[in-house]
Amino acid sequence: MRNTEIERLFSGLIGEEYELLRVMHPEAAEMSKRVGEFVSNNGTSGAGLPLKVLEIGCGTGITTLALLNSREDIHLTSVDNEPTMLNQARQNLSRWIEKGQVILVENDALSALCDLPDDSLDMVASAYTLHNFLNSYREKALAEILRALKPGGIFVNGDRYGLDDFEAHTQQVQTEVKRYFEVLMERNRTDVLEQWILHLFSDESPHHVMRTQPTLQTMEAIGFYPVEEHYRQGINALVSGRKPKTS
Ligand SMILES: C[S@@+](CC[C@H](N)C(=O)[O-])C[C@H]1O[C@@H](n2cnc3c(N)ncnc32)[C@H](O)[C@@H]1O
Question: Which residues form the Methyltransferase domain (predicted)?
Answer without folding.
Answer: 53-153
